[in-house]
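Crash report, auto-generated. Payload:
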Amino acid sequence: MVDVSSLRLCIYQFFGGSEISPSPPTPTTTTGNNAHMIYIFNRNGVCLLYREWNRPLHTLNPQQDHKLMFGLLFSLKSLAAKMDPTSADKGNLGVPQLPGQGCSFHSFRTNTYELSFMETPSGIKFILVTNPRTSDLRETLKYIYNLYVEYVARNPLYTPGTPIR
Amino acid sequence: MAAIYSLYIINKSGGLIFYKDYGSKGRMDTNDSLRVASLWHSMHAISQQLSPINGCSGIELLEADAFDLHCFQSLTGTKFFVVCETGTQHMEALLKVIYELYMDYVLKNPFYEMEMPIRCELFDINLTQAIQKDRVALLGR
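Recovered output after restart:
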């Protein structure tokens, strides 16, 4: 069992200690944490990492939750590629897209949370769920991707496609 | 130079009842617009389930590389969403204006059947006027 505690420590330090965007304290969070959850998926939908810091509401069990999240993102990516006004020829809905191909969304916002998304050329997807007042988190996701590359991808004892420990 | 590419109105069950595109960039053929509308309806519902906090009312803004999608859901479940250029301002206000037009010219029309495609001339006319006014205001800025 590979212990990649250094990756976890970096993420905890990054989110636990820093103020990404100063926001007035909301009634639901007492600690003032900025991020709710993080997910990392690989190309096949395997959830490589899931951490939650502040999640008062759980609607589904973890397996279903991961599958639903992956499915939502896959469909939203397909929708964004279809609705893209700049490309001349759009594939049909449901045609799998290569990671770099076509227009992809990078975030969406609801009244209770904001979800930021980044996909790398190798198909690894980074998802961050934060409070709705967050500004553009693409740089943050790139930073996390760099951490992933350093501590996970370059770890000789890590098997790609398995959950990060 | 249009800031808005297209406008969709979806009924409670996810069926497309109104679709209008502005310019060639937003254009989509009928079948595709129906599929996109249903897909959006489902995604909106799923996003509510994945919320870490109680009381989520679905996606309000989707930001992509080439466009933004603003969505407004009324209390009855009718969704209005507009696909526009990235960074377009005041889309929420525009959606509320469109909602008011919908109420006045569609819902109060005695010949309009609920949840059916909208075929109300006055709604079209006033909608075009509202979008034009908005466009002029945007260009003038």
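Post-recovery validation: Chain B has one domain: 4-140.
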